[in-house]
Amino acid sequence: MDVTAFIDRELAVVDYLFSVDKYEEAVPHLQNILQQNPVHPQALFFLALVYYGREQFEETRRLCVDALVNGFDKEGAYGVIAAAYEKEYRYPAAEEAYLQGLQANPNSAVLHADYARLMMVTGFWDKARALLNKAMELEPTNQNVINAMIDFSFAEMDEKKQREAIQSLMENGSDEIKKIVKLSLYHHFKGDYKQAREYAVQAFLMDPANRNLLALVEGCDYALHPLFLPRRLIGKLGGGAVVFLAIFTVLVLLAALNLDVILAIVFYSFVALVLYNWMVAPVLYHLIVRGKDPWTK
Questions:
Q1: Residue 40 and residue 50: Cα distance in Å, rounded?
Q2: Please, what is the Cα angle at 56 between 53 and 61, to 5 degrees?
Q3: At a CB cut-off of 8 Å and minimum separation 6, what does 89 contact?
Q4: pLDDT tens track of the chain, all 297 residues?
Q5: What's this model's pTM, rounded to 2 decimal places?
């Protein structure tokens, strides 16, 4: 028997079964490959994906490490290792895996996007934005990058329905609508909400009966609403982390100069700004526009 040809045939079957989401049915074929070559890196990695689907994350990581040792692509293996750690809420270990993957391939758009998602989960929004900026520079049409951009762009409204609606557009819309929606999302992420809205309106006019496209327009209206002007200004200044560091530096200097009155004014003004941006403004927005907000219908 020609072992190489046999393994190639079995891998072709595995590739097909994975493409139609029949992972468990691929297991006997993977076992056939590993009987002939116990250290076949691609077969080990495919088997790791099967165990990931079974939520057996320790075995997933072990198989990924075995695949790595035998020459499998570091980008893919470290990405799955990181995802397995995330499923167990072991975020520092997940971050370390992403960093190892990016060290091996600094130009991986997928790893940058997935790492950005981890930063969103853990609350490091400025770092998430920087990672997504890099991912978009590398591969702006990659679906993983687009999905992460959707999550980031609409996270401030914290509505699951928003992301589901946009995802539906990306999966079911016409090619032309998909192209325009991607442009709208790109500008939304960049903070150019006016341009984002123009693209959203253009897509809506192509299919006025599509409620999800109307919702995309309203999502841009949310970001452009005058209530969120302070938030947009903070974004233009470099984001919350930059502004926080600047205010903190000013407070330290005022304290050192014993300017207690000015110190108190700056401190309480900053607290009021934070409360307004992330508590008062969203509540006021939903009170004002609830009746015409398609995300809440």
A1: 16
A2: 95
A3: none
A4: 578 888 889 989 998 999 888 889 999 999 999 999 999 999 999 999 999 999 999 999 999 999 999 999 888 999 999 999 999 999 999 999 999 999 999 999 999 999 999 988 887 888 888 898 899 888 877 878 877 877 776 665 445 555 555 666 666 656 788 778 877 877 777 777 888 888 888 888 887 777 777 777 777 777 777 887 887 777 767 666 677 788 888 888 888 888 888 888 988 888 888 788 767 877 777 777 654 444 344
A5: 0.62
